[in-house]
Amino acid sequence: MMKQNVVISRRGAERVRAGHLWIYRSDVRASADVVGGSVVSVRDERGRFIGQALYSDQSEITLRLLTLRDEAIDREWWRGRLRASVARRTGLERVADAYRLVYSEGDLLPSLIVDKYGDVLVLQTLSQGTDAVKEMLTELLADELHPRAILERNDVRVRELEGLEQRAGVLWGDAPAELEITQHGVRYQVAPLGGQKTGAFLDQRENHLAARTVAHGRALDCFTCNGGFALQLAGACETVMGLDISAEAIAAAHRNAELNKANNIVFREANVFDALREMEAEGKRFDTIVLDPPAFAKNRASVQAAVRGYKEINLRAIKLLETGGVLVTCTCSYHVTETMFLDIISEAASDARRHLQIIEKRIQATDHPVLIGVPETLYLKCVIARVID
Questions:
Q1: Exactly one of 225, 237, 330, 332 is catalytic; which is it?
Q2: What is the fold of 5-67?
Q3: Domain residue ranges in the chain
Q4: Fold annotation for 75-180
Q5: H helices within 216-366, ranges in order?
Q6: Mind listing the pLDDT tens digit for each residue in 18-44?
Q7: What is the pLDDT of residues 301-337, one digit of tens each?
Q8: DSSP string over 259-298
Q9: pTM for the full model?
Q10: Catalytic status, residue 222
C-alpha cells in the first residue's frame, strides 16, 4: 500500500533538518484523509521528501519522525530498531538487572518505552502510532528477549492527548505481582503494575552511586519514594533518615531496607517542606542531604511556582548542612533548565549566607540517552555540591 503524504511548512522542515523528531500541528500544511496511527511520508511544500513519521490526528505533536530514509517501515524495520536499542545497553546487566531498554526519541523510537525488570518487560506505547503496532512490538520483544512476561503501563495522562484510553495489564506471559531487582548491589521489591512510572524510577540509578561516593555522617533523604538514594547512602553514612509524604512509598522503603538489612535507616511519613522547617527550628544538622522531589513544573505555566518550591527546599537544606556537608539536589522538570536550576541553588545559598562549591553536574542515567536536537530527551538535572563555610 502506498503511503499517504503529509506536507509540512518550511519551518517544520527546518526543524527536522536540525535534528528534532516532532512536527506540530501548526506546521502541517496538508494531511487530507490520513488515518491516525499510520506511517506517512513527510514532504515539504515543494514536494521534496523529508522522511517518514507516525501520524496523530489528535495530538498537537502531529508527526513523530521515524526515519529520514525512504525505506519499508515493516516488521523487520521495527525488529532492527529494537535490536539496536537493546545492543546499546550491553554491559548494564553486569551492574543492574533493571534498566530502560528503549527510551523513545532518545533511541529513535518516538513514543515507545520499554523497561526491563529482571525477566519481566514493561511496555508503554504513548502515541497513536506505537499503540497501533503494540501487538507486533510485543511479539518482537518476546521473540528477541524471551522474557517471563511483558506488561503494559499505559495508564499515563499523555495518552489522553492522543485520544487513547489508559490501561495497564499483562500483554504476554505470566507476570508476578511483585518481583525483586538489584541495582549496584542494592535489592528492591517492585510492583510493575502498581509502582511509580513502570514500576520504579530507573533514571536515578547512576546518581545514587555518585551520591554514595561523597556521602558521609548523618544523612537526610528527602522525597525518598522507595528508598533509592537512602539505601545507597546507608553503606557510606552513620545514619540515614528518609522522608516522603506517601504512606505507600514509606511502606515500600521499609520493605527494601529490611531486604538489604540496612539497620541504620529510619523512614518517616512527612511533608518535606514542613519537616525541613521544623528541623531548622529545632537546630538539627546533617552531613549529607538529598533532594529528589517529583516534577514541580509539569508545564510552562507552572514554572514560576516550581522555581519557588525548588528554592524553598534548597534553602532549607543548605541551612541544615554542616560545614563540609554535601547537598545532592535534583529536578526532573524538563521546563526547569540547568541554567535555571543552578540559579535557584545559587540564590538559595546566598539567602542562607553559605558558600557552596559544585562537585559535579549530572543528568539521567545512561540508559535514558539524550538525543542531540531533541532537548525534551534531557529532563533530569542533578547537582552535587559541598558547603564550605
A1: 332
A2: 2.30.130
A3: 5-67, 75-180, 203-387
A4: Transcription Regulator spoIIAA (3.30.750)
A5: 228-233, 247-259, 272-282, 303-320, 338-352
A6: 999 999 999 999 887 899 999 999 999
A7: 899 999 999 999 999 999 999 999 999 999 999 999 9
A8: HTT-TTEEEEE--HHHHHHHHHHHT--EEEEEE----S-S
A9: 0.94
A10: no
